[in-house]
Design brief:
By secondary structure, the chain is of the alpha+beta class. The protein has 4 domains: 158 residues, Sandwich (Immunoglobulin-like), CATH 2.60.40.1250; 95 residues, Immunoglobulin-like, CATH 2.60.40; 273 residues, no CATH class; 105 residues, Glutaredoxin (3-Layer(aba) Sandwich), CATH 3.40.30. Helices cover 43% and strands 21% of the residues. The chain has 18 helices and 23 strands. Strands 11, 12, 13, 14, 15, 16, 17 and 18 form an 8-stranded mixed beta sheet that branches. The chain is globular. The N terminus is likely disordered.
């Protein structure tokens, strides 16, 4: 009877709206009250691939559209596709809805812009250039809090079989829409209806953030939509308690909202759900503090290890020797150490804040995201070339007046900031899991983790500044220091060579040649400034302006060059895709999937020392292991989302899928050939 009442109310609303339009034209506005556009992520999908379409929907102020389960009233949109032969469309995926309670009826609605996503499957074997006209007739209900209007929209887009390319702007927009789509839970939930109460137990890590939690049922009739819900955390699960509906029992599907517009797709099978012993979800979770502390410790340890990287070690060594050369008293040494640490930590926090802000806007980025842009590689290349020439004695770095005004602390701060910036291509042991955890922590805890990375990076110099016994271990100043400085230019030159190689991989041989020309121009300008310095003159404003001009022009030119097609390392490897992984797992094949980038030093060391060795290849061949390679050099958004799903903030990521295993084994960030053979 209650269901009939809801249906009756909806029908009355529709007829009332129709009468209003008939009797008083314009009373409800001309409409449509939902502005809908059909947008394709790529207008040139490849044959045999999928392309995502978005129903970019913008409700008129005061009006709302409905979710896939509208709740107690309303009805979901009906999609009638007209597709080319062989092309099929999946059901739409909706973002997390909002709740609207009107006259005791609970409605699941969208009052703000939203975009359901539909995946279109393009058949294989179609020739490039084949036209794929897509048409959609959409019927839907749109309402205010007092009246409803049935509307329809005829939408269309023209696709052409091609290479699947998409513009960066379109990719970013679809990434933002995808972030709003609930993610699969990946674990079994349980539902129990007994004694007039419905309890749903959902596995959820005790340390993960949770805010404004609410369960939106997709299955109809199993939950009383208007009944209040109590959300409680109980260890590594969430228990939702509410009132059952009148529709019987069975598997309950729905979406658990976890805050920030994010949600998890839940499929709960009937079973026994013990009553929760935890506080409501709004209470702070003790596990969150432990997770933040563990991530902070891992980031600090990873930052400490970064000091032995070839791009950081020369800077740290010179800074350490400056303490020996400067004969600083205890107070001055501590001030320099604190200033150096402040420079390192501020850069790490700033990079972390940018990552969190961009991810909140929908971008699938992680640590060292700036290196996916060839302009950043050019800037880093020219900076490292300049540092190499400085260590080689060609010139002395001129310092601005405001830095000099701060004394040794100003120079130490700038040096620390430089060390942190140059260290960004590196991801060492312990860093991956720590920074991955930071991305699911509250923003303030995440920034603390990034600060931990900076503290770890600054820790050696901080110890030298505060522990006099360590400073006494430093060699006494002498002429050998100039020779040692020249030797330190070698790892810097190796870093420059590596960056030049990355630039060539990103934008091809023409981009590499352009980068070398820019490096030569910078070197000539630095040589000119060094000549002036040896004559007792200042470095020269003209030389500085010239260097800025070279950096600006060369980085802007790099942005206009096109990246070459990605290649895999050998014939034994295949390019990673989620579809290929799914096919291999369905065939019960063992799979080793690794995710790398040309600018990731740890990745390249692991590949040469462990993955691409004869022993590893022979072991994989004996067991018929398929190797999939995900190249994240240029910031592929799909790979970024896959990496994020495995709680990592970037590369490297190594996964082994054993036959029949439900989840992959996540391997350490430092590999050995024996470790891989043992799999």
């Amino acid at each position: 009877m209650r269901a009939l009442h809801y249906l009756f109310v909806t029908i009355l609303a529709v007829f009332a709206a129709s009468a209003a339009h008939a009797d008083a034209p314009g009373a409800l506005g001309a409409g449509p009250h939902l502005a809908i556009r059909l947008v394709a992520e790529s207008t040139t999908p490849a044959a045999g691939s999928t392309v995502t379409l978005a129903l970019d929907t913008r409700p008129e102020p005061g009006w709302h559209g409905y979710w896939q389960n509208p709740g107690d009233a309303g009805f979901p949109a009906k999609l009638d596709w007209s597709l080319p032969k062989g092309v099929t469309a999946d059901p739409p995926l909706y973002p997390v809805p909002e709740r609207l309670l009107v006259a005791g009826l609970m409605n699941y609605v969208f009052e703000k812009p939203y975009a359901p996503l539909v995946k279109l499957h393009v058949p294989a074997g179609l020739a490039a250039g084949t036209a794929l006209p897509v048409e959609l007739h959409m019927s839907y209900l749109v309402c205010t809090q007092t009246v409803c209007v049935p509307e329809a929209a005829d939408l269309a887009t023209d696709l052409t079989v091609g290479d699947g390319a998409a513009t960066a702007e379109t990719r970013a927009r679809f990434d933002a829409w995808r972030r709003a789509i609930p993610k699969p839970l990946g674990a079994a939930a349980t539902v129990q209806s007994a004694n007039g109460a419905l309890r749903i137990a959902v596995p959820y890590p005790g340390g993960a953030p949770l805010a404004d939690a609410y369960f939106y049922p997709v299955s109809t009739g199993l939950v009383d939509y208007a009944a209040p819900q109590t959300i409680a955390r109980d260890g590594d699960r969430i228990v939702i308690t509410t009132k059952p509906g009148a529709g019987g029992s069975g598997t309950l599907s729905g979406v658990l909202a976890i805050g920030g517009g994010q949600g998890l797709v839940v499929d709960a099978k009937p079973g026994i759900v013990a009553a929760p012993s935890a506080a409501p979800a709004e209470a702070p979770a003790p596990g969150a503090l432990l997770a933040a502390l563990l991530a902070f410790g891992g980031a600090m340890l990873g930052g400490l290890i970064l000091n032995i990287m070839p791009c950081v070690f020369p800077i740290l060594s010179l800074k350490a020797l400056s303490l020996a050369r400067g004969h600083l008293d205890e107070r001055a040494a501590r001030h320099e150490a604190l200033a150096y640490t402040a420079g390192v930590v501020m850069v790490c926090i700033a990079l972390g804040a940018v990552i969190l802000a961009l991810r909140a806007g929908g971008s699938a980025i992680g640590w060292a995201f700036q290196l996916q842009d060839p302009r950043a590689i050019v800037v880093l290349l020219l900076l490292v070339v300049a540092l190499s020439l400085n260590l080689g004695g060609l010139f002395e770095i001129p310092t601005p007046r405001f830095v000099n005004a701060a004394g040794g602390a100003g120079g130490a701060f700038a040096t620390g900031a430089l060390a942190a910036f140059i260290a960004t291509p590196c991801t060492g042991p312990f860093m991956g899991a720590a920074l991955g955890a930071a991305l699911v922590l509250p923003w303030y805890a995440a920034l603390a983790v990034f600060a931990g990375l900076g503290i770890g990076l600054a820790l050696p110099f901080l110890a030298l500044g505060f522990v006099p016994a360590l400073r006494k271990l430093l060699p006494k100043p002498g002429g050998w220091m100039e020779t040692f400085r020249r030797i330190l230019s070698i790892p810097m030159w190796l870093t420059a060579i590596a960056l030049a190689w990355v630039l060539g991989r990103q934008v091809g041989v023409n981009g590499l040649a352009a980068g070398m020309v820019a490096a030569l121009a910078v070197a000539l300008l630095l040589w000119w400034g060094g000549l002036r310095q040896r004559k007792g003159k200042p470095f020269g404003v003209a030389a500085l302006v010239g260097i800025v001009a070279v950096v600006t022009v060369s980085s802007a030119s790099a942005a206009r060059l096109h990246a070459p097609a990605p290649v895999v390392a050998s014939a034994d490897e295949q390019a990673f895709s989620t579809a290929r992984l799914a096919r291999l797992r369905a065939a019960n094949r063992p799979v080793f999937a690794y995710f790398t980038a040309d600018w990731c030093l740890t990745c390249k060391v692991n590949e040469k020392a462990a993955i691409e060795t004869d022993a590893t290849r022979a072991a994989f061949a004996r067991k018929n292991v398929v190797v999939l390679v995900g190249d994240w050099t240029n910031g592929d958004a799909a790979l970024g989302r896959f990496i994020e799903a495995h709680n990592r903030a970037g590369v490297p990521l190594y996964l082994y899928y054993a036959p029949g295993a439900a989840e992959p084994q996540v391997l350490p960030q430092v590999l050995t050939s024996g470790m891989l053979a043992a799999l």
